[in-house]
Specification:
homodimer; 282 residues; mainly alpha; Na+/H+ antiporter like fold; 12 helices
Chain lengths: 282, 282
């Protein structure tokens, strides 16, 4: 079992890097190569690797590291500056696919419920893909990128609402407005509280760790542990864990120790982030 | 499942670093704290974390990274210089516990077979603990440390022979000398061939990768992939995978890119090596 998992990791690492190197040479973002490599080595391709629990956890760590990194290079103030634009992008980016998908479903003769599910399925924006492609293009700090990233996060909240409403409609035939408002309240409260508390207390805490730790791995390990904790909390608030990782990154990025944290987490990300994108195809 | 594993990793990271910081302050090697922390959070302690497949794989990656790091700071020539001393240490370090254990077994009235198993169980030297304690003491490159490390590797071969002989005696009542010689031959051939081929070709290969790779994560990912491959090969030769990782480290350490490989793998090790030592207690 253990050595089988190590063999899978070995194949994933080699496939990811060969694909990334090829793509870089034809000016395509590496992430495209990684997803294709995942399809090639996965069950729909040469079936070299199967989607095990171990690979899923490594992939999850990978995408959490990605959003941590992205969050840590952005400023909350800069994000707030594009807040209105982000929200418009998010609303349009949800409304158009939802209405279009549902209408198309009706058109080809689906029941109303089925059509609603098609619409709901099309509303999701992948925060992970968004962050990675903008990162590969080295465009993360541009105003346009911040707008799109903010929209992807807002989309996670809106998508949560749509999914809840559609599922309730399908299962119990009715939706309680109070129930939906409560879900929105919990999600928004999570974002507001973790961002506010995190940005207020976390930078100082990690500067203190950087100054007083005697073991050289303490800073990087606790930064990852903090991020995992916020990701878990996000899941409790029914948001995607990576939205939590993004908020954790925003908080850690304001610390004086953030350069060291980023420098030490970067090679870890080099190993695990590709696992996430390959696992899309596996 | 996935988020449960992330919670386990979070607990392991925090426990490891708290334990390491405490131990560093009372001048005890951090590894002692990590093993104790593992017992505390494991099923025999507060039962916060269970020994899952995911944790086992992360632990395995951790100890492989440790031996890769240790191998990469040592020189094969320096190891060979202490070769005779290492072999004496290994033989004495196997013979004394084996004879002592078996004699003690006989003394307290065990059957001959049972006594042999007690002796065999006591012969193993933990390459992982040896490497980590010497590393914590910053004594890896001392001649004495090289002697002990070389002995731990040699012990893996001798232990393999003893275990094979004892198991064959217990199951079929007899041992074929040719069979035992074949096992020794495969193990020694693995060590000799991977060391010779690895040291001849691997440094140049990784310098080439460092020079021509366009994606910044390629070098570190392929260095880890190479190490995993040699570890898998070691397992095929019935040796411990970490002995393979040690040989891979010896080869990678001679590359001009070895400083960069070591620098980038270090934070990865900071995260995973403690998982191995905690998992001893979990």
């Amino acid at each position: 079992m253990v050595s089988h998992a190590l063999l899978d990791i070995l194949i994933v690492l080699v496939a990811a890097k060969v694909a990334a190197e090829l793509m870089e040479r034809i000016n395509v973002p590496a992430v495209v190569g990684e997803i294709l490599a995942g399809i090639l080595i996965g069950p729909s391709g040469f079936d070299l690797v199967e989607n095990s629990d171990v690979l899923r956890v490594l992939a999850e760590i990978g995408v959490i590291l990605l959003l941590l990194e992205v969050g840590s290079v952005l400023e909350l103030g800069e994000l707030a500056a594009v807040g209105k634009a982000s929200l418009s992008v998010a609303i349009i980016g949800v409304a158009v696919p939802f209405v279009g998908g549902a209408a198309f479903g009706e058109l080809i003769g689906m029941s109303g419920e089925e059509a609603l599910f098609v619409g709901a399925a099309l509303t999701a924006t992948s925060v992970g893909i968004t962050a990675r492609v903008l990162g590969d293009l080295k465009a993360l700090t541009m105003a346009e990128s911040r707008t799109v990233l903010g929209a992807a996060v807002a989309d996670d909240v809106i998508g949560l609402v749509i999914l809840t409403v559609v599922v309730r409609l399908a299962t119990s035939g009715s939706v309680s407005v109070a129930g939906v408002l409560w879900i929105v309240f919990v999600a928004v409260a999570f974002l507001a509280i973790t961002a506010a508390v995190g940005i207020r207390f976390i930078p100082g805490f990690f500067e203190w760790i950087a100054r007083f730790s005697k073991s050289s791995g303490t800073l990087v390990a606790l930064a990852l542990a903090f991020t995992l904790a916020i990701a878990e909390l996000a899941e409790v608030a029914k948001l995607a864990p990576i939205v939590g990782a993004f908020v954790a990154g925003l908080a850690l990025g304001r610390s004086a120790a953030s350069d060291r944290i980023r420098r030490e987490l970067q090679p870890v990300g080099h190993l695990f982030i590709p696992v996430f994108f390959l696992s899309i195809g596996i």
